[in-house]
Amino acid sequence: MEKTKIGFDAGKIWQMLMEKGELKVTDLKKMSKMDIKDVYMALGWLAREGKVHFFQLENEFAVCLSD
User: Fold this and answer.
1) Could you list the residue range(s) of the whole structural domain that residue 27 is in?
2) How is residue 67 annotated by DSSP?
3) How many Å apart are CA 18 and CA 50, to the nearest integer?
4) CA-to-CA dists, residue 57 to 10, 23, 27, 41, angstroms
5) Which of 4, 10, 30, 38 has a Cα-to-Cα distance from 24 of 20 to 30 A?
6) What pLDDT, in 10s, does the model give residues 4-57?
7) End-to-end distance of the chain based on CA atoms, in angstroms?
8) Handedness of CA 63, 65, 38, 27 (dihedral sign)
9) Which pTM value belongs to this model?
10) Spatial separation of the C-alpha atoms in residues 62 and 2, rounded to whole Å
11) Phi-psi region for residue 59, left (φ > 0), alpha (ψ -120 to 50) or beta?
């Protein structure tokens, strides 16, 4: 996968988190209509930049923007 696509996907997820706040990863997948592997690569990109925080929400993996 090329870096440009991962960066684009990361921007899309970042925007959804700005609008919605915290989201379960499964909800991110549904809302973004991305494959789960693309969601996780984009989240990895955002995590590397220190822009997201991961936690458990209702027994699922969730994410929100860092403070």
Assistant:
1) 3-65
2) -
3) 15
4) 21, 9, 12, 20
5) 4
6) 999 999 999 999 999 999 999 999 999 999 999 999 999 999 999 999 999 999
7) 29
8) positive
9) 0.92
10) 25
11) left
